[in-house]
Amino acid sequence: MNVSRFHCAVPVNDLAAARRFYGEVIGCPEGRSTDHWIDWNLYGHQLVTHLAPPGTSTPRATSEVDHKQVPIPHFGVLLTADEFHDLADRLREGQVEFVIAPTLRFPDQPAEQLTMFFHDPAGNALEFKSFTNDAAVFAR
Q: Which domains does the chain have, with CATH numbers?
């Protein structure tokens, strides 16, 4: 499937912490950077971590999905099952605390998926998932 790449920019309060988290823990190749931002290759998508002014923070709200409170806003990537498990292992090795640990959501339903939620060091919420049937990503 040929899918357009997305661009997402998120605030961070420490570029060195972002570099460790996105580069070393998640394993994103680093692209261009300055002393104010870093470009990351997030599974073929462009993620940019921008140094935010002191005192700014990411809002923390939740919404119920499948009887669990998920953080909003959040972003992430749809992965293959192997990529999902590899990333979950990297996060565990990096001692990242899960908001929702890797789990199967909507079992035996068209949208059955593996999902996990966690925060980066700046508090940005991320969700990575893998659909059992990729053709069901937009199933109703």
A: 7-51 (3.30.720), 61-136 (3.10.180.10)
